[in-house]
Amino acid sequence: MSEFFYMGGYAFYVWTSYALTAFFLLFSWLQPRLRERRLLRDIARRVRRGDR
Amino acid sequence: MSIIPNWLHRLSSPKNFYRFAGTASNWCGWIALVLMIAGLYYGLVDSPPDYQQGDSARIMYVHVPAAWMSMFVYMVMASSAAVGMIWRIKASSAFANASAPVGAMFTALALVTGMLWGKPMWGTYWVWDARLTSELILLFLYLGYMALNSAIEDRETAARATAILALVGVVNIPIIHYSVEWWNTLHQGATVTKLDKPSIHISMLIPLLLMAFAFKFYYLSNVFRRARCELLEREQGKLWVRELVGEKNGE
Fold it and tell me: Where are the domains positioned within chain B?
């Protein structure tokens, strides 16, 4: 198992690459979800206030 | 009888597209996740280390799909921006706008994972060779597209300006692809995307293709989510959006 994490001495480069990939993909996954929620909340507030 | 099939016509209504994009995004997301888990297993555990590069070659399974996607997304973005400009189809321009940040993300990912691979193999994080430089230009093209799009208030003018920028930038795509052949570069040549048989072993090709398809479905899933936001923002005064908000609040 420790050999797996050691990656033949390239642990830093391999795991940083995969960690960054995970981070980028998660960030891009989250971004539109948060934006959509914010948009819907803003529109709902405006509808409740009754203006167009 | 119109040449546009009925289902496509229905889909072009913003309300239906909004619903469709949500369902499509979820499905593509799950497919991407399954492919990615398989790809990670084969890439990190099952495949052998490279005979020259050892385990550092495993960076390939994220680096190469990200680089492919950086070019693929650009072509999708440029063509849908062009369609949006020529036939004035708003949904097409919206799709291009939604693609830009995802493409920029893949390009940045290709660049950083490439740097992390370059350090142990070449002894340096960065060289100004043709492949690396043209990929960096691609990142600037994406960022330029996004900046230009947000700088112009009028949506129709923005769609036209960004489409022209995207189309001019297309010239960079063959330059990236052939850079390793046209110039002497530190970057290695293609082993998969060439006319004769791929020179990569099957045990490495399988995880590579799994990750490539995972990234492709991830892009689809993500771009549909972003297109939903674009649509909501443009149509926020319309009745269907108000109804949608009402439904969500249980009225």
Answer: 23-248
Number of domains in chain A: 1
Dist CA B134 CA B130 (whole Å): 6
* Site from B47, B55, B216 to mutate, A interface, most A CB atoms within 10 angstroms: B55
What ipTM does this complex have? 0.91
Q: Which of B26, B46, B53, B58 to mutate to test the interface with A (most CBs of A within 10 A)?
A: B58
pLDDT tens digits, B163-184: 999 999 999 999 999 998 888 8
Alpha carbon of A25: minimum distance to chain B alpha carbons (Å): 8
Instruction: Check B55 against A14: CB less than 8 A apart.
Output: yes
Distance between CA B212 and CA B245 in Å, rounded?
Answer: 37
Considering only CB atoms, B113 lies closest to which of A9, A17, A47, namely A17
pTM: 0.91
Cβ within 8 Å, pair B120-A10: yes
Would you give the distance in Å from CA B36 to the centre of its chain? 16
Q: Per CATH, is B23-248 categorized as 3.40.50?
A: no
With a CB cutoff of 8 Å and minimum separation 6, the contacts of B180 are: B130, B131, B187, B188, B189, B190
Instruction: Please determine, for residue A30, whether its predicted confidence score (pLDDT) is greater than 60.
Output: yes
| Axis-axis angle for helices A11-49, B239-248 (nearest 10) | 100
Look up the domain containing A14 and give its range: 2-49
**Contact A31/B101, CB-based, under 8 Å?**
yes
**Residue B13, helix vs strand vs coil:** coil
Query: Is residue B183 classed as helix, strand or coil in its secondary structure?
Result: coil
